[in-house]
Amino acid sequence: MAHNSLHSALSKARNFIAKPNSKTQQLKKEKMLENPQTKIVCNKCEKSNVTLYKVSENKYLCKNCRQMKGE
User: Fold this and answer.
1) Distance from C-alpha of 63 to C-alpha of 35, rounded to nearest angstrom
2) Which is it for strands 59-62 and 52-56: parallel, antiparallel or unpaired?
3) CA–CA separation, 12 and 22 (whole Å)
């Protein structure tokens, strides 16, 4: 009995794993190649999980670095 429930749990877990060569995964790869995502970070401390302020074109500062600068 325990063997069947373990087997069932493993097969359910396996069903949620994305298949690497599925059509959906291939489309995702193509979209990522066409539209690469750039990660915006603070130019001084390189933090990305804080509020960032745009200082100039392609330059961002976080709240702490912005206060140190005196803006």
Assistant:
1) 29
2) antiparallel
3) 18
